[in-house]
Amino acid sequence: MILHLGGDSFVKTKEILMILDYEEAARNKDTSLFLKKLKTTALDGEPRAVVITEEQGMKKAYLSPISPRTLMKRSSGGEDAFLRQ
């Protein structure tokens, strides 16, 4: 399945390692250091979530304007999901 992250960006749900709240991740020293080591793609809009994936053996981070809660609902296939196979 595919998860829409905002704009024209999608990721495969099986590649998602974690979804974090952007503000919490930015405040946490260890998490911030971890994220700085990853290739990061900032999507249009104010970041609300950090989606960490592993694609072809490489970890990547996406800064999404969609709330972490909404992304989690979508990734679990909830009724309001914007998911495609």
Structural commentary:
This protein has three helices and seven strands, in the order βββααβββαβ. The protein is α+β, with helices and mostly antiparallel strands and 85 residues long. The strands form two sheets. The chain has a four-stranded mixed beta sheet with strand order 3-5-6-4. Strands 2-1-7 form a three-stranded antiparallel beta sheet, with helices on one face. It is globular and about 30 Å long.
Write the layout of secondary structure elements.
Layout: E1 2-6, E2 9-12, E3 16-21, H1 22-27, H2 29-36, E4 39-42, E5 49-55, E6 58-64, H3 68-75, E7 83-84
Parallel strand pairs: 4-6
Antiparallel strand pairs: 1-2, 1-7, 3-5, 5-6
- According to DSSP, the number of beta strands is 7
Percent of residues in β-strands: 35-45%
What is the arithmetic mean of pLDDT? 90
User: Uncertain regions: pLDDT < 50 for 5+ in a row?
Assistant: 79-85
Q: Let me know the largest β-sheet.
A: 4 strands, mixed
The percentage helix is: 25-40%
The topology string of helices and strands comes to EEEHHEEEHE
Shape: globular
**What structural class do you assign from the helix and strand content?**
alpha+beta
Order of adjacent strands in the largest pleated sheet: 3-5-6-4
Task: List the keywords.
globular, 85 residues, four-stranded mixed sheet, alpha+beta, disordered C terminus, 7 strands, three-stranded antiparallel sheet
Short synopsis of the structure:
Helix content is 26%, strand content 41%.
